[in-house]
Amino acid sequence: MPGQPAQYQNEIYLHGLADQVPPFTTDATLVESVARERMAPGPFGYVSGGAGCGDTMRANRAAFGRWRIVPRMLTDATTRDVATTVLGTPMAAPVLLAPVGVQSIVHPDGELATARAAAALGVPMVLSTASSYPLEEVADANGAGQRWFQLYWPNEPEVCASLLHRAKLAGYSALVVTLDTWTLAWRPRDLDQAYLPFLRGTGVANAFTDPAFLAGLAKPPEEDQAMAVLRWVSMFTGQDKRWDQLPFLREHWDGPIVLKGIQHVDDARRAADAGMDGIVVSNHGGRQVDGAIGALEVLPEIVSAVGDRLTVLFDSGVRTGADLLKALALGASAVLLGRPYVYGLALAGEDGVRHAVRSLLAEFDLTLGLSGHRTPADLTPESLRHA
Ligand SMILES: Cc1cc2nc3c(=O)[nH]c(=O)nc-3n(C[C@H](O)[C@H](O)[C@H](O)COP(=O)(O)O)c2cc1C
Ligand SMILES: CCCCC(=O)C(=O)O
Q: Is residue 185 within 6 Å of ligand 2 at its C-beta?
């Protein structure tokens, strides 16, 4: 991404939104309503929906509202520098694209478009185990970009080892192990529409290209697709994992390991005790436990308990530049963007992802400067007040 992120603002003022970029809003809090009009109901419900009545999704947003930025004046913030390095990965801004499975349900190019956009933006993408393209093809599309691999930890060790081996060979530099989704929550929007992408054969690309997975099938997927899909899905269902099994992942992965879905300070301590390199404080965008605490609420206590022992990342509910600033001020090293870039993908493919992320980064850059900060490292809890 050449120059300051906020140059995007000038491009838009000078040339107009429709000339430069896909003609949809630069406001990530509104893009969902644009997407609702243009997306098919099944995929829209799947992406936008959460667990139960959506209480946790609302709590995620409300938590941001309770922290307020307190701007400082006459500071040196004319030129900002938002680039950073997290767990050895350089990034143009403290942002990664969150692992989101089954992206071909919103756009035929799916993760390939996301991978190209991420490379152009200079931000890493985290590829889901449940991607709609094989991890090697996504790596090719990402090219010289930065990429991490998200693991849904299969209950067959050979398949797990095989996926990790493939991810390493394909240049994924860090591993994100998602702990909060060992079964899908009660999701009324998907239940009402009987819409589950996996059972329709999406999100199985990494299985159907995996030698260890294929070796365990009685019949190849071409002969019995339904059985193969069920086997893949059942491989991730069930809570058979415990803290003492983390060394298995270390044996099979020599890069950084990050545990995603941490919400309790004691779990954060256990991750640090287990020698993990990082955690993502996250409630999966409110898609798993309805009635849960807003993810940002638990960030400060987790940072103060383990921030000196591992890297703390954050997601769930980030929609604006101010949200990003707040999460960083409360101690996150970087933030994972979820639904906003997926709506960008749905609305305009690769260009849509770029537009959605550039808009958010431009807003972040301007908010950072106007509140008196030059770099993300200048942000501290003192930049905020809890209201
Ligand atoms: C449609 C969709 C699919 C997702 N798939 C995955 C996944 O495959 N693996 C994973 O770890 N998280 C997955 N997530 C969760 C995201 O990584 C992230 O935690 C969440 O989107 C953050 O919340 P936000 O979208 O409200 O910002 C998914 C989220 C959405 C919206
Ligand atoms: C096996 C679940 C993958 C998708 C996912 O994480 C979600 O829908 O939230």
A: no
Q: What is the DSSP string of 101-142?
A: S-GGGT-TTHHHHHHHHHHHHT--EEE-TT-SS-HHHHHHHH
Global pTM reads 0.98
SS3 91: strand
Concerning whether 355 is annotated as a catalytic residue, the answer is no
Kindly give the distance from the C-alpha atom of residue 382 to the centroid of ligand 1, in angstroms, as a whole number: 30
What are the domain boundaries of the chain?
A: 7-386
- Catalytic residue (one of 107, 165, 252, 284): 284
Q: 114-117 long-range CB contacts below 8 Å, 24 or more apart?
A: 114/341, 114/345, 114/350, 114/353, 115/139, 115/141, 115/142, 115/145, 115/147, 116/141, 116/142, 116/143, 116/350, 117/341, 117/350, 117/351, 117/353, 117/354, 117/357
What does 140-196 look like in DSSP terms, one character per residue? HHHTTS-EEEEE---SSHHHHHHHHHHHHHTT---EEEE-S-SS----HHHHHTT--
The predicted structure's pLDDT at residue 20 = 66
Q: CB–CB of 197/105 below 8 Å?
A: yes
Task: Determine the topology of domain 7-386 in CATH.
Answer: TIM Barrel (3.20.20)
* pLDDT (mean) for 261-289: 98
Q: What is the pLDDT of residue 201?
A: 87
